[in-house]
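Students often ask what a holo structure prediction actually looks like on paper. The answer is less mysterious than it sounds. You provide the chain, you provide the ligand, and the output is a string of discrete structure tokens encoding the 3D arrangement of the protein together with zinc ion.
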Amino acid sequence: MPSEGEEDYIPWIQQFCEAFAHDYFVPVAQEFIEDDFNLTGLSLQVPYYREALYTILDYQVDTADDNDASITNGGNRPVQNKAKSELPNKALLSHSADLLYGLIHARYITSKPGLTAMATKFERNEFGSCPRYYCDGMHLIPVGCTDIPGQETVRLYCPCCNDIYLPSSSRYLNIDGAFFGTTFPGLLVKMFPEIENQCRIRINKFNQNDFGLKLFGFRVNELSSSGPRMKWLRMHPKTQEEKQEYENCEFQVPDNDFDSEVEDTDGEGDLIDDDDKTMASDDE
Ligand SMILES: [Zn+2]
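The corresponding structure tokens follow.
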């Protein structure tokens, strides 16, 4: 435990969250870390797990760099009677503690208090805004491409265009994406329907005059080699029928027969017809 009487004492978690480029992190509640259930499986992923955990919780931990004179709080040490060779050095312990805290953080932000803390940061636009013009400054949400640490750095997810972006500042290129995880953004959007609402307003605002490539006023066919590729990724259901179909697809494979599939493409029919007229000479 932190020794009393030291007025300038800063808890480890606070130090971590205030460190350079750590401003995406929220402080994890001490109770959350002290509950063993929340840490299930982490001991296999983090070297010097016990020492790292004690570091995060501000217990006194022996390191290989310590000499006996520097240990003042000898009576209350959790790590005892270990040979010096078994102890981590300070750099190793610091790395393990960062890794462990990051993995706990990824779990914490999917719990209710964690989600609330992250939502507050989201509200304040602390993660930045979507660079896409049609997203109209939609706030971004940190996300990991994988839950395995050491694979990818943190990315930012835009709930409006459903795309992910690299953070605008290179300072975040050292932050592991697994410290935020793949689950968090979806959960945040579902827990706070206001976010989906903000997206809907933006989508409806821009749907009318959707930007598309044009040549002398004619739209370029989507199938053309210079056409707007992957446009379907940003398409949203508009009519009631499309919305129903979207809802059916979200949780199950729709059992439509072939005829109805042909009918469903009618939404795009006018666009294709348009292009057929303009490219009529090519088709014949
Ligand atoms: Zn966006």
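The two ends are 82 Å apart (CA to CA).
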